[in-house]
């Protein structure tokens, strides 16, 4: 099972088109978005994905009703963070803001993988038995550093993909 991981798209439509092409070419099985889509028209572009899209809302997702409508129309599964799910026997928590992770782990120590966004900074590390990943940003704020990721749930290997 290969997960595409993306976050902080911030309404950059040209980058969203590139991201969709990357994930479709890699034939990922699902895509997880870590929030800050910002506008419904941005989320609607993800309808071109050849796989399911799941994710969380971020602090800049202020078009709440529009985003929820687009998610429902396209069969996307978006929730307020944390979004707890199990995929391929891996228990995953999806956050937007990383400052909420530490307290959450005290409540649910069974989490194996945390995926978050918000900081626009790449992160791929283990803290104890927990893998923490942030794919970086794809909003174009740090020119030339736009990235998404492909996460293999069999061995938790992570490929950072620049575009």
If you had to describe this structure to a student in words, what would you say it looks like?
- The chain has 163 residues and is of the alpha/beta class.
- It has one domain: 4-Layer Sandwich (Purple Acid Phosphatase, chain A, domain 2).
- 23% of the residues lie in helices and 31% in strands.
- The protein has helices at 13-26, 40-45, 64-74, 101-107; strands at residues 2-6, 30-33, 53-56, 77-79, 83-87, 90-94, 113-115, 123-127, 130-134, 147-152, 157-162.
- A six-stranded mixed β-sheet has the order 4-3-2-1-10-11, covered by helices on one side. Strands 5-6-7-9-8 form a five-stranded mixed β-sheet, with no helix packed on it.
- Helix 2 links the parallel strand 2 and strand 3.
- It is globular and about 40 Å long.
- The protein starts with a strand and ends with a strand.
- The mean pLDDT is 96.
- This is Calcineurin-like phosphoesterase domain-containing protein.
Task: Itemize the secondary structure elements and their pairings.
Blueprint lengths: L1 E5 L6 H14 L3 E4 L6 H6 L7 E4 L7 H11 L2 E3 L3 E5 L2 E5 L6 H7 L5 E3 L7 E5 L2 E5 L12 E6 L4 E6 L1
Parallel strand pairs: 1-2, 2-3, 3-4, 6-7, 7-9
Antiparallel strand pairs: 1-10, 5-6, 8-9, 10-11
Task: Sum this structure up briefly.
It holds the Pfam family Metallophos_2. By secondary structure, this protein is of the alpha/beta class. It has helices at 13-26, 40-45, 64-74, 101-107; strands spanning 2-6, 30-33, 53-56, 77-79, 83-87, 90-94, 113-115, 123-127, 130-134, 147-152, 157-162.
